[in-house]
Amino acid sequence: MTEDLRQYKQVTCTINGKERTAMVDVRASLTDMLRNEYRLTSVKKGCEVGECGACTVLIDGEAFDSCIYLAIWADGKNIITLEGLEGPNGELSDIQQAFIDETAIQCGFCTPGFILTAKEVLDSGKLYTDDELRKLLSGHLCRCTGYENIFRAVKKTMYKRLGKKYKE
Amino acid sequence: MIIGKSIPRIDARDKATGRIRYTDDLCDKGALIAKIKHANVAHAYVKSVDTSEAEKIPGVVKVVTCFDVPDFRFPTAGHPWSTDPEHQDVCDRLLLTKHVRYYGDDVAAVVAEDEVAAARAVDAIKVEYEELPFVLDVQEAMKDGAPLLHEEYPNNVLRHTSMRKGNYEEAIKEPGLIKVEGWYDTPTVQHCHIENFICFASRENEKIVVVTSTQIPHIVRRVVGQALGIPWGQVRVIKPYIGGGFGNKQDVLYEPLCAYLSLQVGGRLVKLDCSREETFRNNRVRHAIRSHIVTYCRKDGTLVARKLECFSNQGAYASHGHAIAAKGAGAFPQLYPCENVEVDAWTVFTNRQVAGAMRSYGMAQADFAVESHSDDICRVIGMDPMEFRRKNLMPKGYVDAFSKNELYADTFNQCLDKGAAYIDYDRKFKEYQNQTGPIRRGIGFAPFWYNTAVWPIALETASCRMIVNQDGSIQVQVGDTEIGQGADTAFSQMAAETIGVPFDMVHILSCQDTDVTPFGTGAYASRQTYVTGFAIRDCAEHLKDRILDIAYRYTRMQPYLMDIQDGNIIRATDGRVLMSLGDLALQALYDTENSVHITMERTAQAKSNAYSFGCCFAEVEVDIPMCRVKLLNIINVHDCGRLINPALAAAQVEGGMSMGIGYALSEKMIYDEKTGKLLNGNLLDYKLSTFMDHPHLEAQFVENPEPTSAYGTKALGEPPVVPVAPAIRAAIRQATGVALNELPMDPHLLFRRFKEEHLI
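YS: structure for the whole thing
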């Protein structure tokens, strides 16, 4: 009989503003915990090895590929998924609205990750050049959009937040 | 007007909030997990499979091998069924195989209680092989004595087709002709939709229900029936929102195996989720096609005789088979009409990944060969590339003899003018001639042509059902699919426009369920706005007639005196609002004398088709010592007829251009010659374009409404990828003088070619 290797550990963390506790398999990724334990299905699986960025979440304000972040490391952390950006009455954040307005969404599978990295970029309060912005967003792969409209959505929102006039 | 407005896509909000549900998001947590044992040899017979260790692993529920599966051979191509056995897709698949035909072929499968147990069990399965020699190159595979993949296909030739027009051999005897000849090679690439293929299956009330990430739910239903040997009506396929397809999901992938595995464990819920590596290795890829073109022309660029031979690498199984090579080859005589043409196309099995449909279906390969060759002709005869195109491109009024597709407008000149103006082509072309030094710039362009949909090669049919709700809003159901391209938004705009209701009064069913939605073959061939457009128009016109007939009861106005505008029944003669559609629907349904549920269902068969056209212009900077190409500017101009939703149309073009840029400059699947193993089947080693690899992507349109189309539309989904690689090639050539006859034009190729041409 082959040995059963399962081990579990309790993980307590803040997810989208609420403290949550779960017993998780010590080998599980944060992606698995968020999707399976909490049904936060905006966290997408595209490669599970940190290549595509679809599983991105914010951990203490910083964007991470949750697929290569162990669930047990999340203990004590503050985690935000895309579900956490929507207001209590369904209000959208500015960057979500910009993705809609700029036709930056097609199949939508890369969208949650992109929006969360964009949030990290925008929350820095800095004005980035086009090249800097492209580099900051380059951890995400998208096959539908050619990144064109995603770029415009993020850039426009950055200008708006900084009270600057946007030009194409 | 609702058509022509850039309305945000109907699913945008749910996608921006992460609420939208894809296949995995719908699967119950308690599902059993299926994993496949893939062969680690490229060509072999399976002698034995030892499952004893695998079965001992805790959590393993079932192990099946290639010796267990039923002998029902099935096809996988997402083509409509043909009632003529001669035209049916090749049935060369079993659920698991005893004859391994590529590195990664499926020999056994495990069902377990969780992912880890399933993965460990797959590793514990021991397979003994009788290894066979293998072949990866398409022309090597055709040679006598080459390893044979399928006994029924001597020399591995799945199919060879020929076309003859005029008399090539006679025509080339004309004195003074100039001969131009070239070989053009395109690579194997993968679709790389971000959602990997996934499906889950269970038995419900004696039916097998498969929920799957597919572009073709009604075809999957048929093929699952074929593969399991059960009546098609016992199969129910549900297609949720999908995370991209690009043709990979226009094939039946692992739905039959998943359904079979569910039935092997008593119909319990089984999920089969491909890893990214499996998506690369075990789904489908774009055919690598090697093309040989010979042109005989006069000094003034007049084309006298042309010949194309192309060799399409099918990989291990037939899938879409010869249809891809045939689409490109069949279109060869069209772009540059010529009196004397010979075309031969071969599709050949090799021990590589299975090639299937991928965005542009052979036309990206064909356009790279044809347009690279056009550029070569210009170099040889010393003709300006723009002048050559304007002289020889398909003229207005051209009709293709087979498809009856016609070019109704002066599209090519309009598109070329628009692209040239945006990128400042004329000035830059002159400025970049005869450069020296290590860093040089170049500008180039390529036109493209694309036949929408599949008529008359195969059936084109679509159906639509409309139901008037009690509030007067309209339910719309079609069998054709939303796969991220925005089809549902465009369909809703069409329906709203024809019926005469505001856009938000149309509720379309975005997720197909073969037990609910009417029949449609699905998303492929850039067919849906054209073919499904017929079904929507037909259904909406009939529904409108029915509504006005029923309105007569309550308004006492003759139907021909009435119309529907903005959701109201109006008297057309003076514009007076008689009643709202909501009031009518409510009264008609709850009428105690004569209750009517107002519905309509129509099937439309398309027996026409349409050409789609356009071009790409690209400007590059080449660092010769570093063998690097930097794309500086790029524009695609498309004539896809009338734009239903300009913002969504532009978004389609940008995405296609991105795929074209990857095809041109970085994407290629690399194989180990010694083992046949795919070496870069992951998103780190396979170079998909990132945010940093593109300049601004400019998408523009020339709108010539297509006269044969219900809404003036024609193909847009696939064409944007087509002209990008040859346009970039022409730009690199102008910069360096070096002709690149294969893709991708990455530093490896540039290094080799610059060495050969003594640039470095």
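YS: worth flagging: Chain A touches chain B through 57 residues (CB under 8 Å).
IM: good catch. Also Chain A is about 30% helix and 15% strand.
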